[in-house]
Amino acid sequence: MGSDPQYAKYPNLLLAQHIFTLQQPSLSAHHATAHKILTTSIKEHSQAPLYRYIAHKSDGILAGKIEWDEAFYNELLKKNEEELAGYNTELKEAEENAGESEVVAAMGKKAELWARLLEKASLAAYEELLTKTASTGAKIDIVLAMIRIQMFFDDKHGVAKDIERAQLLVESGGDWDRRNRLKSYTGLHLVSVRNFTDAAPLLLESLSTFTSSELCTYTSLVLYAVLAGTISLDRVDFKKKVVDSAEVLAVLGSKHSASGDNVEMSDYGNTEGYECLETLVNSFYTCDYKSYFHSLAQVEESFLNRDRVLAQHKPWFVREMRRHAYTQLLESYRVVSLENMASQFGVSVDWLDRDLSKFIPSKQLNCTIDRVNGVIETNRPDDKNRQYNDVIKQGDQLLTKLQKFGQAVRLRGSERA
């Protein structure tokens, strides 16, 4: 099973969600709660760097929304310096009088202090700690802590780099628990960079073995997994891994909602339940497109607008979910009337015409619209011809490379002669 995870307490990623909430004018109803949670955390944990990062009057990302108090900041800073001095003393004594394990423990306390305060210097402290740590499991925990810090500051490049590093460590001797935790981290990162296709299997596999509560709540992981699966899985896998998944049904199942019990509060304060997400999943699978469009609008309002990971992809995601539904319906018909299709989706003919026209020119939908006769004609691509053309194209490229290679060899041979 492996040792218990270390360095998993900090940073608190929920604070990043509350910062996002305060940045969104559309979420003004949640501003008071987010403001209270942030200011309470800053006071309780003496988070001077976080206070400076969000509230400073010149460059704070929430300047004006959280009051800047220079005296309060200096008070927090003094507490941080005193705490840091204590850890530095402990580290010095360990280096002079104790063994390697005591030195590593002292360095770990110092790194966790920076992570608790949400100071970017924590990355350097964890890097130094990594060089002194011998255990593969502890090294993985350190890298996961660094990933969370970079997730807090939305450093996607840094997250990707450290996920690769964690993957190498896991492959070299990581235990079962850390392998599964890394799946959640990787899946969430892939969602953040809009790679739902690769994220879906990782997130769905993580549901039954979820232990990464330091990353997000379980219900939030279900949300990410369901949305990634809905937009990327084929119909068979979608049925098996999402619609009929015991882990998904435990959160989305109507029995759960009907019982009167509230679902676990999500990272962004949504306590309305997941009924609209359940409807989205079931209506898409049963081809109830009117209900699907209605629930998609509710999911956009209840989840996509409020979640800091999903919000940046909201326009693209909603557009792709509509295209996904159009594709599924058109696959069943050779010709379908515009009026009939508009009725199935619960929209007007003119609106459907405009929306379909966004996908047809780029061949994201294989159909044409005949407004004179009021029909949509599908023109499915010929896979055999496509494969044949791909082989011809790749063969030509290969021959060209071989010819260039042959010329280079002949030239080098003539030089030797």
TrEMBL record:
This is Similar to Probable 26S proteasome regulatory subunit rpn7 acc. no. Q10335. The 26S proteasome is composed of a core protease, known as the 20S proteasome, capped at one or both ends by the 19S regulatory complex (RC). The RC is composed of at least 18 different subunits in two subcomplexes, the base and the lid, which form the portions proximal and distal to the 20S proteolytic core, respectively. Component of the lid subcomplex of the 19S RC. GO terms for biological process: proteasome-mediated ubiquitin-dependent protein catabolic process. It comes from the Eukaryota. SMART domains: PINT. PROSITE patterns: PCI. Residues 77-104 form a coiled coil. It comes from Pyronema omphalodes (strain CBS 100304) (Pyronema confluens). Residues 195-383 form the PCI domain. The lineage of its organism: Eukaryota, Fungi, Dikarya, Ascomycota, Pezizomycotina.
